[in-house]
Structure formats: structure tokens, C-alpha cells
Amino acid sequence: MNDFLIRPTGKGLFAFAALVFFLWFVYVAGAVLFPFAVAFGLAYILDPLIDRMEKLKMSRSFAIFLALFSSLLVLIATVSLIAPLIWAQVETLTEKIPEYIKYVEEKGAPWVESVPNANKERVIAVIEDAMKSMGDLPVKILKSVTSGVWSGLSNLIGFLIFLFNLVIIPVASFYLLKDFDKITQKIEERIPPRNRPFVKEFCTKVDNVLSDFFRGQLMIASIMASILSVGLFFIGTPMGLAIGLLAGMANIVPYLSIVLGLVPALIMTYLEFQDLSHLVMVALLFGGAQALEGFVITPRTLEKAVGLHPVAVMAALLVGANFFGFLGLLLAVPSAAAIKVALFEMDTAYLESDFFKSEE
């Protein structure tokens, strides 16, 4: 068996079998692995910060506790601040939906009459049905939430698993951060010395790509989400906070923020105010934000970054979510980073090969 693994063919088959087993295990045990994957992600992101705090003569355990506690406080404060505002906008929107539909009916009736062979009675009936459904929307939402809460509480095992996940994430993050350097050192020691330089260089490049993504593209998306959501909120756009947050995070993929942000914002703003001035304000907000992002935020944030292409991020997230669910979403970006570096190394090796350089 050992002789077989030493041969090139045996190494390749073993590596392929290990990859297949890993993918199968992630697919089968995704729900169980999810909190540990989140914990490892937090440890990976926070480890550089913990190392800097250690240099300030702070014990590693206290630095980890301080970092995790601060992150938890920021998360709670953000959710506590944003969630009530979004819920208030949802309640306001559900109250005004009948008015919006009535406005569309009044403005659209002349247009329907001008269209040859248009069934006006059918169009009006559809609008009235929509108005009735929208009028019952708050009750439906309340019933849905109540049903979901009751279902979760009645399923004791599921509820306990949910609590376990909430507890295990910070606990696992703490212990992973505490031994993060030891873990990486142990892994490095298990790599054959002859392959160690290549593996270290490969992992460093993957780490650089991930750092560029998290510190670059995600930071830009967060800044854009803040600008757009606050701007739409002050303009008075219904669901402005939610639309702004969605548009900002969609900014990872070029032009997707226009589809998911600008178009809904213009529609909701027009239904609310029915004038041109507010539409111009929304257009100026998105245009100004895009200009700020293109000329100031991105150059200062990314500089010489070689992060992931937006299309690669989108494809990785879709594939990961489709095959592995929430765990796939977590593993999508790191996997895409590793694939990018591997393809770059293969391309470099090909360009330097005798096959490519040969003139025969």
C-alpha cells in the first residue's frame, strides 16, 4: 500500500479519492459542519488582529475574548438599529400598497383603453384582486411569523440544535483562535520538506486573494450599502433601507446594483411622491455613489489588489449554494480563491514549458 502511494499514479488517485470523499462528506454533513465552518471563518479573519493585539503586550486569551465580544456587540447593535427601521418601513408599505395600486389603476385605465382589443374589465378585476390580497398582507405576515415561531418551539430537538449552533460558534472560534498558530504549524510540519516551499507560496497567494476580497470588495460593498440606504431613507423612498442595503451588497457584481437597487428605488419613489424631483434625487444618489466608488473608494481600498473577479464570485456562490447549501456559501469564496491561484500557477507553468516555447 505504501509503495502504491509513492508512485505518481498512486498519488494522483489518492488525491482524487480524497477530494471526492471531502466533497461527499461536506454534502452529507453540511448541517453539522456549518457552525464549525463559521467559527473557522471568524478565526481566519480575526487572527491577524489578535496577533497585533498580542504585540501590544496583551495576553492572547484576553485579546480573543475582547475581539469576539466586540464583534458580538457590533452585530447586536447593528441588528437592533436596522431591524426596527426596516420593519417600520414594511408596515408603512403594507398600509400604502392599496393606495399605490389605486393610483396605478387610475393612471393605467386610459392606457388600457387606448390599446386595441384590451380587456379592461379583466385588467380591473386583476388589480382589485391584488388590492384585496395586499390589504390582507399584514395579517398573513403575522400568521406566518407566529406559525414559524410555534413550529420552531414545538420541535424541541430542532430548537436545541439551533441554540447549540449559537453557542458553539463563539466557543469554537475562541479555541481555534487560541491555537491558530499551532494548528498552522502542525499542518506545515506534515507537509514533505521538498514540497513545503511550493505549498507555503500557494497558501500565501490564496490568503492574499481572500484578504483582497474581504478587505476590498466586501468593504466597498458595505460602504456603498451605507451610503445608498441612508440616502434613500432621507429621500423618503418606501423600503429605502432594505433597497439600499441590497443594492450596496450587490455592488460586488458590476451593474447588478442598478437592477436590484436603482430600478426598485425609482419605482417605489415614484409611487410614493408621483413627481420628477424625487426621481432626480434618487438618480443623483446612485450616480454620485457610483462615481464616489469608482474614483475614490475603490482606488484607495483595492490599490494593487488581485482579488476575485466579480463573475467568479457570483458563479462560486451559486454553485456552492446549489450543491452544499449554507455551508457551500461559506466555502464558495475560499474555494474560488484556491482555484484561481491553481489556474494561475498552471498557466504560468504552461507559458514556461518547452511545449509552449518550442518552435517546432
What share of residues is helical? over 70%
> Averaged pLDDT, please?
78
Number of beta strands: 0
User: What gyration radius follows from the Cα positions, in whole Å?
Assistant: 27 Å
| Oligomeric state of the chains in view | single chain
- Pattern of helices and strands: HHHHHHHHHHHHHH
- Cα end-to-end separation: 42 Å
Reported for the largest beta sheet, the result is: none
Identify low-pLDDT runs.
none
Rough outline: globular
Q: List the total number of helices.
A: 14
What does this structure look like?
The protein is mainly α and 360 residues long. The chain has a domain of 114 residues. Helices cover 88% and strands 0% of the residues. It contains 14 helices and no strands. Helix 3 runs parallel beside helix 7, helix 3 crosses helix 13 and helix 9 packs antiparallel against helix 10. The longest helix has 55 residues. The chain is globular. The model has no long low-confidence stretch (mean pLDDT 78). It is found in: Cell membrane. Keywords: Cell membrane, Membrane, Transmembrane, Transmembrane helix, Transport. This is Permease often clustered with de novo purine synthesis. InterPro entries: AI-2E-like.
Write the layout of secondary structure elements.
Layout: H1 2-6, H2 8-28, H3 30-55, H4 60-114, H5 120-135, H6 137-154, H7 156-178, H8 180-189, H9 196-235, H10 240-249, H11 256-273, H12 276-302, H13 310-351, H14 354-357
Helix pairs in contact: 3-4, 3-7, 3-13, 4-5, 4-7, 9-10, 9-12, 9-13, 10-11, 11-12
